[in-house]
Amino acid sequence: MAWRRALLIATLLILAVVIELTVLAPLPWWGATPPLVLVVVAGVALSFGPITGAVAGFAGGLLLDLAPPALTTVGIAALILTVLGYGLGRIFDSDERPLWLTTVVTALAAGISVLATAALGGLLGDVRVRWDDVPGFLAAVIVYAAFLSLPCVPGIRALSRRVVPEAFPR
Amino acid sequence: MRELRKARLVLALLILTSITLIVVDLRGGVGGPLQPLRTVTTAVFGPLERGAAAVISPVQSFVQAVANWGDQQATIDELTVQNEQLRAQVDTADVDRDRVAALDALLGLAADTSVDIVPAEVIAVGPAQGFAWTVTLDAGSGDGVSEGMAVLNGGGLVGRVVSVGPDTATVLLIVDATSTVGGRLAGSAQIGIVSGTGRQDLMTMQLLDPLAPVQSGDVVVTFGSQSGRPYPPGIPVGVVESVSGTPGQLTRVANLTPYADVSMMSIVGIVVNPPRTDPRPVITAPPLAEGS
Q1: Across-strand partners of B221?
Q2: 8-state DSSP, B156
Q3: Which of B15, B42, B131 is the closest to A83 by Cβ?
Q4: Considering CB atoms only, which of A49, A65, A121 is closest to B131?
Q5: Packing angle of the helix pair A36-48, A76-91 (nearest 10 deg)
Q6: Which of B221, B225, B218, B254 is closest to B235 using CA atoms?
Q7: Confidence bin at B126 (pLDDT 50/70/90)
Q8: B124·A26 Cβ contact <8 A
Q9: Which CATH number characterizes residue A25's domain?
Q10: Residues of chain B above pLDDT 90, percent
Q11: What is the pLDDT of residues A148-169, one digit of tens each?
């Protein structure tokens, strides 16, 4: 059932956006804010494959672009997460993946998202982008994404199997 | 193979949509064609963020208290020293206050500096890796908040409201790299432009007068704007840390530390009613003495 898959992903993404902005971002984390939305997109992409991954990435990115207090250009996070969702779903389309592998690719995707945000912002003339902050963001986001993916990616896969069993024939 | 072709098509379509959004938003900006989209998202996510913040607020206070444990001893030492200095100042303050009161009465320039403030709580913060310094407050148009209002906390100026939802408001903090505030040195009344740098503990002030006397420790307050939007006059902004003359430029740059600690904010005030303008009394010359 397509609508059950859509409902599951929409619920996960809205929860992730609200938690990232109201719970995680106000706390004094070292370096950067844990990228929960990206990890959820990665979990969805690694469960359902490239099409659903790309759509979930677009939706999650658009919510991050629009939900208050976002003031940056609309479409940047959507573009980045679309490509990352597609890529994660594409490279690993087998159903059983070892935990270390999903953790490494999620962390890698998080690193790419930081670089891409800075690069796109710089290209579009955003005066806020400071390249001397990027290495700190990069290190912190990679570490946080790796830790978040340990429970989130297997959790999302288990949830997907229960809610949308027909997407997992084996 | 067919599945893969479909996936590529979806990817291409979504990338195209994202780039269209970026271009449209860059051309339009706030109030542009994407404004309805922002308005709807704000209306939906505002209540969600308020709800989540209400649940999570006690936990956050606890975590922040634990995170600050080491700093607190240093704060106590610092406050003890400050207390001594302030006590010494208080002893001489009475004389100064009498003089000031007398001068005030003489000039008839007792300006009304009271402002009306709506208290609000910070309920959401933009992710640090997004480079922007913005926060969401739990007061919106229903509480009388509108765009362009100044936001303060106990320390001083925090930022200004840039967009308002039914029950939330988004604030651009003064440390954001796109934020500029008209500033005035409290001692010498020299004016300049205070810009954010994207760092929470550093702002720069471009002094318009290259020969202006300025030194570290000088206090910077807001210059004030027409009818108090966005910034009413006289709100403390920061204190000068160092001054650097940029060779080849006609202005000097002072580095400021903002008074408001934007990383540790919970309750702030939104200025809904700025002070009325100075009464501007008529000055009349005294009558000339007879025979002179």
Answers
A1: B184, B236
A2: S
A3: B15
A4: A121
A5: 40
A6: B221
A7: confident
A8: yes
A9: 1.10.1760.20
A10: 11
A11: 999 998 899 889 888 888 777 6
Taking the domains of chain B in order of start, what are their residue ranges? 2-66, 73-107, 115-274
User: CB distance from B66 to chain A under 8 Å?
Assistant: no
Render pLDDT for A87-107 as a digit per residue (tens, 0 to 9).
998 876 556 678 888 899 999
Which residues in chain A have their CB less than 8 angstroms from residue B15's CB?
79, 82-83
Q: Are A25 and B37 within 8 A, CB to CB? A: no
pTM comes to 0.76
Q: Which of B5, B6, B11, B125 to mutate to test the interface with A (most CBs of A within 10 A)?
A: B11
- Number of structural domains chain A divides into: 1
Q: What is the ipTM of this complex?
A: 0.85
* Residues from chain A contacting residue B64 (CB–CB below 8 Å): 27-28
Length of chain A: 170
A114 touching B (Cβ < 8 Å): yes
List the domain range (segments joined by +) for residue A52. Answer: 2-167
In B67-156, which ranges are E strands?
A: 116-125, 134-137, 150-152
Neighbours of A92 (CB within 10 A): 16
> What CATH class has B115-274?
mainly beta
Q: Assess A50–B contact: CB distance below 8 Å, yes or no.
A: yes
- pLDDT interval class at B248 (50, 70, 90): low
